[in-house]
Amino acid sequence: QLQLVESGGGLVQPGGSLRLSCAASGFTLDPYTIGWFRQAPGKEREGISCISFSGRTNYADSVKGRFTISRDNVENTVYLQMNSLQPEDTAVYYCARPLVPLGLSICTLTGASYNSWGQGTQVTVSS
Fold first, then answer.
1. Which backbone phi and psi does 112 adopt, to 5 degrees?
2. Average pLDDT over every residue of 55-60
3. CA-to-CA distance for 2 and 82, rounded, in angstroms?
């Protein structure tokens, strides 16, 4: 059964760091693009980062320079390193996979391009 499981969320002070993991099971991560999204209370879901099969990455302006996405196809896991966290980063973070591979270097932050979603992990940034 296809499954994505996020972990690594928690409570962190402003300026702190967290590393989120998105572990895939029931399928091989390679050759899929994987995206990270977040949704804060009362706000729309936001695409924040993605990584293609070839390793091409994309970031939302809100996280560019602070977050880094990476993938380990051996571990079948995608990571999101989040540095310099701020209260506005507080949200539930989700990883997602499209129904079919998008292509070698295609990486999109559009949620409609993704079909399978994890259950999410809460990130709270507060002093």
1. -65, -15
2. 96
3. 26
> What was the pLDDT predicted at 96?
98
CB of 17 within 8 A of CB of 7? no
pLDDT above 90 (res 1):
no
Structure tokens at 25: 């099971």
pLDDT tens across 66-120, in order? Answer: 999 999 999 999 999 999 999 999 999 999 999 998 888 899 999 999 999 999 9
CA dihedral 83, 85, 88, 89 (to 10 degrees): 50
The rounded percent of the chain whose pLDDT value lies above 70 is: 100
Neighbours of 43 (CB within 10 A): 10
Which among 93, 97, 118 is positioned nearest to 39, based on CA atoms? 93
Q: Cβ distance 40 to 90 under 8 Å?
A: yes
DSSP 58-109: EE-TTTTTTEEEEEETTTTEEEEEE-S--GGG-EEEEEEE-SS---TT----
Alpha-carbon distance 81 to 20, whole Å?
A: 6
